[in-house]
Amino acid sequence: MTQRATGRGQAGISLVEMMVGIVVGLIIAIAITSSVAAIGKQFRITGAGASAAESAQLGLAMVERDARMAGAAVFSGSVATMCPRLNAYKAPATINDGTPIGDAWPPVRITDGGTGSDTIDLILTPPAVAINLNVGVTKELPTSASVLKVSEPGGRLAVGDLVLVAHPPPNTSGYPCTLIQVTGITGNCADAANGCNVNFGSGSSDYNPPNANTAFATTEPYAPGSVLMKLPNFTYTRYQVRCNSLLRHDAAITPSCIGTPSYRDSALAAGIVMLKAQYGIANAGSDAIVQWKRASAIAAGEMARVKAVRVAIVAQSGEVDSAQVTSSAPVVFDGTQTLDLSGLSLPAGKTWQNYRYRVHETIVPVRNSTWNR
Question: Which UniProt keywords apply (predicted)?
Answer without folding.
Answer: Membrane, Transmembrane, Transmembrane helix
